[in-house]
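Reviewers of the previous submission asked for a worked example of the structure-prediction workflow described in the proposal, so we include one complete record here. The input consisted solely of the amino acid sequence. No template or homolog information was supplied to the procedure at any stage.
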Amino acid sequence: IHFKDQMQKMLAENEGFTGLGLMMGPTIGGLLYHAFGFLVAFEIVGGLLTLTVPVYMALVPEDNKEERTKAKIAHKSEAKEKLLDDDVSRHSHIESECDEIMLNDVRRPTFMRILMIPRVFLGYLVLMGCFFTLSFYRVILSVHLKNAFGMDSLYIALVFASFSLTYIICGMIVARIPRTVDKRPLLSIGLLFLVAALFLSGPFHLNDELTLPNSLPMLITGVALVGFAMGFIIIPSGPEFLLAAKEYYETDGHILNDYASGVFNNGLALGLIFGPILGGVMDDAVGYRKSCTHLCIALALLWVIYTVPYLSSWKTLCQKRRVDPSTILDNADVKDGSYLSGSVVLG
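From that input alone, the workflow returned the following structure tokens.
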């Protein structure tokens, strides 16, 4: 309602700060635990959360329901007057209106219909894999650093700080990308970063022949790459869901915005729920290094599944955009230079 012209921007900012909070949590928690102990750390975090309530109440604008109700009543009155103007064609108008209502009911967006859009569903899998990996690290990485390298809580917190640092850097880069740019390449790059992060932070260990040396600098480099991966996936995923939904449904942007946020939150929740569970089971079954290796292979397969359809659609679109050289001078777009710019806007 208040940001109807900047819905993509507000959605990206909201999800960007969500990811930042998730990645700063282990760092701040580790520092508080090292300084004050377990109980005081929870008391400080609880106090900070309580202080955010009045700030939230003061900053969030109110929803003006009266204006929305008046606008709906005026719209219905205008539609009714328009139908009653011509008595001769009123019956046909009513029948066409009923057909339109039935058609709109079929095309009415729902959460499952939005989720089942192929472009949205593939992005949803990427987002869920992103949060799965994040919660996977938060559960077993600290234990691995303590057991394998003898780190205390202070140094473990500093290792986790690389998450936040690289995420902030990546967020500044992604924020400079125009909103009209297709978001699917960003998600593909982020997923590739995630595969490289797991490959290095394990490090990769499939068997005695296919293995990398266990190195702390390599592990820290892999952990830092996770922040870049999160920035390329979390920030543009919401606008990507919104744009994909707009291709299928012509309805109020606020409704699609709500469903896009719902898809994002659902992927976030499932990733954060199953990441610790399956991560703990994998760690107990095969250990930290092989757990990272198996997850790396799974995300590499997901990268192929996500990227190949996009490349195929991009190739098809490029073929459709080709113009015969003899018709270039007759193309009206050449006059304003848009044809010569060579820019391709992907849906």
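Confidence is low (pLDDT under 50) at residues 101-106, 323-347. We consider this example representative of the routine output the project will generate in years two and three.
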